Amino acid sequence: MLNSTVVHVHVAGRSEAEWPTSVFELCRRRRPCPVERVFMRWSVFLLLGSLLVILCSACTVAAADDRPRLLVLTDIGGDPDDQQSLVRLMLYANEFQIEGLIASASGTPGELKESVTRPQLIREIVEAYGQVRDNLALHASSYPPEQELLDRIKAGNPYRGLDAIGDGHDTEGSRWIITVVDRPEPHPVNIAIWGGQTDLAQALWRVRNDRGPDGLKRFSAKIRIHDIADQDKIAEWIWAEFPGLFYILNRAPSGWDMREAAFRGMYLGGDQSLTSREWIDTHVRRNHGPLGALYPPRTWTAPNPHSALKEGDTPSWFYFLPIGLSDSDHPEWGGWGGRFTLRRDRLYRDAHDRVGDVTDARATVWRWRPAFQADFQARMDWCVKPGGQGNRPPVPVLEGDRSLRVLELKATPGQAVRLSAAGSSDPDGDKLSFHWFSYAEPGTYERSVPIDSPTAETVTLNVPTDAAGTTIHVILEVTDSGDPSLTRYRRGILQVRGKQIIGHGQTASHRGVYEIVLHGRCDNLYLTQAADGSQITSSTRSTSPTAAR
């Protein structure tokens, strides 16, 4: 009797055609006795219960995996701003899956008298993090154990450039990059390059050499790169050798003052008092535990007069930090790590924002400095304050949505669009204030759009009548009343229905008006010939095309 029940459960779920004839006949002809029926019911309940536990566990793992995967290459050991950036990153270790901390060639080319990597400097900071980790965990979850981070510190190549790439140049760091990217994870690996790219270039070379073009293509599709300054001067070579990479080059254009780069908005422009020695001594270095004590107090910041906080590499990982303001798939939208414009296939360069009377790339970073410095201050407090005493950020809600994702909303020209932050909350019970504004530069409607009562919880935005076929980005800032006041964000993108006429032209052979109707983004539009082969002169402006006629 028990044997027949075991066989019955074993074949459940298979079609009758697949069952052995004798088993099928047994199950069809024979009616189970009451004891067997009870046994079978409990077997089903236990099976369903086991499946539920497995599904719940899978959901928990999936939720943890939603944190961005981050791998850092740092030239730590030269300019001390790398140590500064790493101290700050440790405070945000709970917001990422930190997959690797790779010590590449120390310093900028020619800065040091020796070719060396200094992973021990990374280890020192991670060990200091370990001393405050339990206190950080009183204020936020998911801070990784110290040993987990120590295990992910790797040494790269002490040499740099094309002569250090190819056969015989694999390093612990380049091999680790391949290991991390090869993991069967659903999310991309975000690679923040603080120093040189040589170890990444070696990993790409090795994959292409061992796996061929198709293997390289699959590998490259799983990474996103944010490169500070092309320090090893091989970016152009990387783009040519490994086309199609998602690559942000955060650097001033050739021939410009190098201090015009977006990343330098960490310490240049805006309120520079937040970068002073007094500020870092008060809020970071003194009375904030062993991690803050390792924050270097002095570095080169000219023309910033303070020579203190620099952190030129921090925007590379700020870019991937999930705070509701940005989307890592869209460099053109902007956030704490800057804003970037598409130059060619998946290659992005610095964009410019206008803030007050200033228009430059640095403004795409320093415009957020009051918020990210307050956040830094609060997390340094978490290192020493008991649970319940450190301020935690608010939780903004946009149109009932409690996630951090960017919302896409439909609108029509002339429509009064109602937007609500109702339901926003603060984990410490602090009062909340609201600030709504239209962020003109990421959108394709080129002017700022006023918002009625922009400090109210619920506001109205009147879509301009000439906005058909454009996008309007609306930012919600929610700030708490704690000490320091902390800000989190939501972004909504209004997709305005309709077609947009962006230019007119006439041919040399006959006069006439030709409408050019586009949707999406186009920085340059050149029209030279009509369908009949005659020349067209055209007026153009930046917009976003998906179709033209």
Descriptive tags:
30% helix; disordered C terminus; 14 helices; disordered N terminus; Inosine-uridine Nucleoside N-ribohydrolase, Chain A; alpha/beta; 549 residues; Immunoglobulin-like; four-stranded mixed beta sheet
Give me the CATH superfamily of the largest domain.
Ribonucleoside hydrolase-like
Query: Which word captures the global form?
Result: globular
Structural class: alpha/beta
Helix content: 25-40%
For the sheet with most strands, the description reads: 8 strands, mixed
State the end-to-end distance: 77 Å
According to CATH, what is the topology of the largest domain? Inosine-uridine Nucleoside N-ribohydrolase, Chain A
For the residues shown, what is the average pLDDT? 85
Annotated CATH architecture of the largest domain: Alpha-Beta Complex
Query: Got a strand count?
Result: 23
Order of strands, main sheet, comes to 3-2-1-4-5-6-8-7
Integer count of domains: 4
Give the C-alpha Rg: 28 Å
Poorly predicted parts? 1-30, 51-55, 57-63, 502-549
Strand % is 15-25%
- Number of H/I helices: 14
